[in-house]
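Morning F.,

Quick status update on the modeling queue. The single chain you submitted on Monday has been processed. Sequence for confirmation:
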Amino acid sequence: MKKSVYSLVLMDEVIEQVDALAYSMNTSRSNLINQILAEKVALVTPQQHMQEVFETMVGLLRVYQNFQIQEQLSDSLCTIRSILKYKYNPTIRYTVTLGRKGNQFYGEVKVISRTQSAILHQYLKGFFTIWSSFERKQALPGWYEEEGTRWVRPLSTQRQQGIGAEELGRALSGYIKAVDDGLKIYFSHLEDSDYTGLKVYEHYRDYIKKSPFML
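Structure tokens below.
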């Protein structure tokens, strides 16, 4: 949606209350006023759309004990923590970023690991290489490594045209759950790379069979 600058005459007391509410919601004065006016005229803003996506996604992931939902500090970003079944139970973070550039939707999922272990890093790299090989056979973007401690998966924009916020939230929760389960399978069979690849493939095949659409 296009944005423009408008001059409005508002009471100081109203703005004080708006600023206080905006601060409590981790948003700006302009965004909050925009949302309030949009609700009044029954118009869904991009921020409201993203919030509905995240609310659906988080609601579905919250039931699993291995996921810890982090405080949402931005309208366009949501973070979930999980624990790897490996030595010392290292944590990883899934971050989902959504946004729009003009009328074009964009989004990405990141997996962030703060590990200092070269061996663990190689294992993670091996998993995302395998997973990406499956995805590219489905004409999906796959994962790429960024800065050595994080992996990035762009979301396929063409497949999301006309998809509602709840559907997108469900698809994102299903994808994160599938990747997390895939990691657990992978780390449970590190001693046999061929067997590991087969089990991860079987898991991915089951995931795509159950998914209404692919991201």
